[in-house]
Specification:
There is one protein chain. The protein is α/β, with parallel strands linked by helices. The chain folds into two domains: about 210 residues, DHBP synthase (Alpha-Beta Complex), CATH 3.90.870; about 90 residues, Rossmann fold, CATH 3.40.50. It contains ten helices and 15 strands. The longest helix has 16 residues.
Amino acid sequence: MSGERIVPATPAALRAAARALLEGRLVAFPTETVYGLGANADDAAAVARIFAAKRRPADHPVIVHLADVSQLAAWAREVPAGAAALADAFWPGPLTLILPRAARVTDAITGGQDSVGLRVPSHPVARALLREFAALGGRGVAAPSANRFGHVSPTCAQHVADDLGAAVDTILDGGECAVGIESTIVAFVGATPVLLRPGGVAIGDLARVLGAEPAPAPADAPRASGTLASHYAPRTPALRVAATAMRSEVEQLAARDERVAVLARTVAMPAGFDGAWHAAPRDARGYAQGLYAALRALDAANADVIVIEDVPESPEWLAVRDRLARATHGVDDDRD
């Protein structure tokens, strides 16, 4: 329906998209993590259009995407040494820093908090768009994920069109996202750096730069994108099951005449299974890259429930485990 809004990210399309942003329109664009729904971060009316398109709560902050680290001073009133070190190590890349906001930053961006989320993406299309926007005088692009609030994030242009349709003026097609899950978020608003969301930068890599792992988020941590208990969720109820219990769980559901879709990692599809079965990569990086596309495909399978084989608890799986926990939050594993 909205396929005409998907345009290849040619130089001409990038220039037109940058002008559209400056004029207050919404532009979806690829990052290395997921596709973002972009608006001029200095235009309160344009930012409001993001919230309306996503049906996003007004107090939920958005991340501002910058062309390069030199733009930090326009958005943050201070940059602690640890934050500067992380920016130097991982920007451009899948890392968001939560910093004390500059005086000019509006509540529309921060959800009324005294902090702002900032990152410099590494995807070549995102970088080119942000450079074009900066050349026109733009200072930052507010861009949460380009999907309905709380649902599965988009990792290709068609996902954006499927979710948001005519609410988006332009969707720049940059192919599939390489990381496939959202950025790591680290907050520097107190004495100690705090991990708000695991993501594309591993905790061990953060620790090597900071000298120690960031602290777990306390109860009074700043609100940040993608940190609600239920998030990244398919519309079909989804539950996690240990590999050793997968076959029996699927059999029990089928015996109750429930249509089942499966996201497996090590368990092979049993003979006679007639639902949707997706075999995910066994490695953490490959699994993360394809996770949201798999969830979307299974969500479209007309099933009553999605059964997800649980993943390992080792550190490299932390971000994936976080997404699966939020995607399955509130689903009763002992369904009647």
